[in-house]
Amino acid sequence: MKSCSVSILLLGASAQALQIARPQVYATDAQWLVTVKRRIASGDRTFAPALAALEAEARRALRAGPFSVTHKMTVPPSGDKHDYMSQAPYFWPNPRTPNGLPYVRRDGERNPEIDRISDHRELDQMVAAVYTLALAYYLRGDEVYAAKATQLLRAWFLDARTRMNPHLQYAQAIPGVTTGRGIGLIETRGLIRVVDAIGLLAGSKSWTTDDQRGLEDWFARFLRWMRESKNGRDEAAAENNHGTYYDAQVASFALFLGKRELATEILLTARQKRIARQIEPDGRQPLELARTRSWSYSVGNLEGLMLLAALAENVGVDLWNYQTADGRSIRRALEYLFPFAIGERKWPYQQITAWTPQELFPLLRRAAVKYKDEKYRAMVAKVPRAAPSDLERLLYPNP
Predict the structure, then answer these.
(1) Is residue 267 a contact partner of residue 251, using CB atoms and an 8 Å limit?
(2) Whole-structure pTM value
(3) How far is CA 146 from CA 61, 150, 156, 198, in A?
(4) Which of 121, 145, 222, 315 has CB 3.0 to 4.6 Å from 133, enough for a Cys bridge?
């Protein structure tokens, strides 16, 4: 009788495990998150180090913020502190003019003046804290994490006293040249993670229907500005990493808002507009190689293209395996960078900041799950596995 009772309890636990909800995320592997949560719930210790690291980050995030564009000391040209603003990082005072205007470009060299305006920094901090808290809530079910994530989201997007207006008219200004540029849209690429964080909070007591509707309204207005404003149209036309991350934002926000036709259009167009135009048949990315931080930009744009591929899975578009007749593809771009990352070849292009080959390793591990062949098994065997405490283990299947 006791044995029978134990069996019934185990069956009940298994049934509950099977009922784990698939989160409404778009850039993250939803099915993998379900798998991880189910295995954690079943007592599997495989993810214990990574989960401990996540919860340590989440506990720190409980003390963070709230963050707001209204905290900056500088006032935007509009006179409204609710307008996001930032200064272009690679522009410096002109040594040939008494007042330093107009500022001049020094590619790859960050001007510390940009830190005087806090919006970009606070945006990044908000994104990191909200995503960490939302992921911890989804995997552990602790309402304290959801409550804090909700507080931070309300402060940035919804509270009339602190919210950001849904546009980037004054992002990446250049003193003496312009009060804002389309290039500034690269600074909001982290909002893709916010969209997924909202999906991870679904079901929480803290995240209300009004919160959901409020964020949907904010993103709808921001997406409209992206597509209709001059700055937004300029960024859409960019042929380098800026265009890649513009498309990723539009696709993510469109999916969040139920605009599947728009997302599908953007992601189908990315085959020719991004992959075919940005990658050479041998895998080089010429517009990124032309930069003074050519390795960093090549890896960064490839990460953006892989993000597009992940988003495209939501609408049945395969960018992972898309290839032009002459061989331009995400896979080829990764294979081009690989021998430099593992030290088999010396990088022949300019890289004025630190050489960081390890930036490529997480991308290779992600790709090896998509490209299940002997070549990729051999490649991934040459790079370190993700550490047991690496959060990557919670977010992506590890080859």
Answers:
(1) yes
(2) 0.94
(3) 11, 6, 16, 10
(4) 145
> Residue 195 and residue 40: Cα distance in Å, rounded?
24
- The DSSP bridge partners found for residue 293 are 351
232 contact partners, CB below 8 Å, separation of at least 6: 182, 185, 225, 226, 246
Rounded Cα distance between 29 and 24, Å, is: 10
What DSSP string runs through 330-378? HHHHHHHHHHHHTTSS---S-B-S---GGGGHHHHHHHHHHS-SHHHHH
- Could you give the dihedral angle defined by the CA atoms of residues 393, 360, 129 and 168, in that order, rounded to the nearest 10 degrees? -140
Q: What is the C-alpha to C-alpha distance for residues 330 and 271, in angstroms, rounded to an integer?
A: 10
For residue 18, is pLDDT > 90?
A: no
**Residue count (the chain):** 399
Tokens at 71, concatenated: 């905290």
In the predicted model, what is the mean pLDDT of residues 263-268?
98
Structure confidence at residue 295 (pLDDT)? 98
Paired with 92 in beta bridges are 104
Report whether pLDDT(8) > 50: no
For residue 12, pLDDT over 70 is answered with no
Amino acid, res. 190: G
* Cα end-to-end distance, the chain, whole Å: 43
Residues near 54 by Cβ (< 8 Å), separated by ≥ 6? 132, 135, 136, 139, 391, 394
Residue 379 is encoded by which pair of tokens? 């490649």
Helix or strand holding residue 142 (H, E): none
Render pLDDT for 365-376 as a digit per residue (tens, 0 to 9). Answer: 999 999 989 999
Cα 190 to Cα 273, 304, 398: the distances in Å are: 22, 12, 23
Distance CA(136)–CA(146), nearest Å, equals 8
Per-residue burial over 36-52, b if 16 or more Cβ lie within 10 Å, else e, is bbbebeeeeeebeebbe
State how far the Cα of 345 lies from the Cα of 283, in Å rounded to an integer. 15
Distance, in Å, from the CA atom of 25 to the CA atom of 185, rounded to the nearest integer, reads 22
- Partners of 351 in beta bridges: 293
Close Cβ partners of 13 (under 8 Å, ≥ 6 residues apart): 42
CA–CA dist 299, 327 (Å, integer):
19
